[in-house]
Amino acid sequence: MLGKMMDTQLTINSLIEFAVKFHGSTEIVTRSVEGPIHRYTYADSYKRIGKLAHALAGLGVGEGDRVATLAWNTNRHFELYFAVSGMGAICHTINPRLFADQIAYILNHAGDKVIFVDLTFVPVLEALVDRLPVGARVVIMTDAEHMPETQIPGALAFEDIIGAEAEDYPWPALDENTASSLCYSSGTTGNPKGVLYSHRSTVLHSWATCAADGLAVSARDAVLPVVPMFHVNAWGLPYACAMAGAKLIFPGAGMDGKSVAELLADEGATMSAGVPTIWAMLLAHLKEAGVQLPKLERVIVGGSAVPQSMIEAFENDVGAECIHAWGMTEMSPLGTVARIKNSMTGAAPSETIQYRVKQGRPVYGVDMKIAGDGGKPLDHDGDAFGELCVRGPWITGGYFEDDDADKGAFDDDGYLRTGDVSTIDAEGFMQIVDRAKDVIKSGGEWISSIELENLAVGHADVAEAAVIGIEHDKWGERPLLVIVPAKGKAPAPDDILALFDGKVAKMCIPDAVEFVDELPHTATGKILKTKLREDFKGYSLPG
Ligand code: AMP
Asked: Residue 286 in 3-state DSSP?
């Protein structure tokens, strides 16, 4: 027997319609790419979203067509999220920091019909002018006054194409399983792989993001997503904020510590989210400039492991809770959040921190297991580690038009293999030991590069740290610690190695420390270990 409830479809359009109807006067504030602060409301945004949909239709965009963006977090990008998906087309965000060849591959693999580009990234597209999808139109996200001279043929200005259009758009009644957005995940090898989200997956993911044990986004919040809208839809925050009716603050191109701090303070942000590298810059700036952020309640950190020293710095120096979360492009991205449970609430911070440094507990909707040899599920005892495998309604079931990428991506039970090696403890907290490719195998034991890196950045004179395995005749591999010193500092290797004493097993302590000016990063800000291993190929360890 079927239930008798209404079969209302979970669509992205319903999110913005809800925000307009019940939170119409709530603000969306942007540091525009042109410079000035732009300020309007959800109600205002919807009028421009309608105009934009008309303009897109005028450019020949129809249901199922892909519309690319190379853009910062701004109100115009927000309008594209809702206009493109709302009309049944697919909003395809591209990371402008990728290599030119990767961007050319992605644009052509997706077959983008229109490409929206911020002023900053016009040169990125100009370099690819001969490799754009055939017939693709380019729209520069600015007004006539700021239009640059460009070699891109027929480039249009965003404000020009929407200017004369009507605000009301006849939004189609979409099936909730309609594709809504597309984001390519860029591994360190092979071509980028497209993850194709649906309206339904996006709405369900937004609910998890708003849940108290998720990121707890609510109408009391003013949210500044530092995580870019070109990286897994800014962790889905623009959708979740519309669902909650939260104030949105977009940092535009100003991603440095000073600009982010200014906006957090001026707009009274209660919550922000981003990767550890951004927060390290912010914390350094706050300290240097003596800026206070009294309204900031919590900061979500993910993308890479958060060191304990960062959690403590936020809480002691800024007065904001620092919450560790984990996910991936394939998961929309939210998977786990490290929030304590009722049974832990009375415990001392020195005890709860052991849970809070972990990647966290799954939110409802994400099922996970750790797989040992032959895919056998391992115990949740906090010690056993294996490949983390996940499934759920906002986790990809296959890559966009790429059968090769699907091969080996899923296990026999249909779980997505994440490529992360992790433990799960008796309380359900997952902790990433390493990327499967980065774990160091020494004398038959596994050494976690992440654990060593997190300890190393706890040293006041260390700005960034990476640990890689160096070939070793006797042990197979031994860890080498590569350090970027803090500005103007020259820490002694022994002083840094002393940090590990008593905190990790002796066999895990790196054999040597090397200093570099900077570490190689991927386009999403993670340390590019493949490149680092190449740089240190043939390195000879002491003794
Ligand atoms: P991406 O798809 O670019 O978002 O990258 C996803 C990958 O980033 C995951 O599979 C992890 O390897 C890594 N990652 C994300 N969040 C964390 C975290 N909190 N701690 C450690 N690694 C993380």
From this structure: helix
Report the pLDDT value the prediction gives residue 446, as an integer from 0 to 100: 87
User: Please, which pLDDT band fits residue 201 given cuts at 50, 70 and 90?
Assistant: very high
What does the alpha-carbon distance between residue 325 and residue 285 come to, in Å, rounded to a whole number?
23
- Per-residue pLDDT of 427-438, as tens digits, reads 999 999 998 889
How far is the centre of ligand 1, averaged over its atoms, from the C-alpha of 266 (Å)? Answer: 31
State the distance from the centre of ligand 1 to the C-alpha of 332, rounded, in angstroms.
Answer: 12
DSSP 508-542: GS-SEEEE-S---B-TTS-B-HHHHHHHTTT----
When the candidates are 3.90.79.10, 3.30.2350.10, 3.40.50.12780, 3.90.1150.10, the CATH number that belongs to 12-337 is 3.40.50.12780
Nearest residue by C-alpha to atom 7 in ligand 1: 328
Instruction: Enter the CATH code of domain 364-435.
Output: 2.30.38.10
For residue 208, give the 3-state DSSP assignment.
helix
Nearest-CA residue for atom 14 of ligand 1: 303
pLDDT band at 188 (very low <50, low <70, confident <90, very high): low
Enumerate the CATH 2.30.38.10 domain ranges in the chain, comma separated.
364-435
Q: Specify the residue with its C-alpha closest to ligand 1, atom 20.
A: 305
Residue 21: pLDDT band (50, 70, 90) is: very high
- At 119 the pLDDT is 98
Superfamily of domain 440-535: ANL, C-terminal domain (3.30.300.30)
For 464, the enclosing helix (H) or strand (E) is strand 462-472
The reported pTM is 0.93
Where residue 375 falls among pLDDT bands split at 50, 70, 90?
confident
185 lines ligand 1 (CB under 6 A): yes
Cβ within 8 Å of residue 406, ≥6 positions away: 398, 399
Q: Ligand 1 in contact with 359 (CB < 6 A)?
A: yes
CB 215 within 8 A of CB 314: no
Alpha-carbon gap, residue 448 to 441, rounded angstroms: 9
